[in-house]
Amino acid sequence: MRVIQGIGLAAIVLSLSAVRADDLKSGPDKKIGGSFDVKAVTGANQGKTLCYV
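Given the sequence above, the corresponding C-alpha cells read:
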C-alpha cells in the first residue's frame, strides 16, 4: 500500500513541476538602453576605453 501511495505522490509532484516549468523564462525581458563604455584591463587594448553597443 505504501508503494502505491509513494508512486501516486511522485506522480503529483512531477505533474506540478511540469506545469510550473512553463512559467520560467530565461534572460532579460527588455533590451539594454544604448551603448556603454568599458576600460580594457588586459589584452591588446589595455588601458583604452572601448564602447560597446
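The longest strand covers residues 36-39. Try to locate this feature in the C-alpha cell string yourself.
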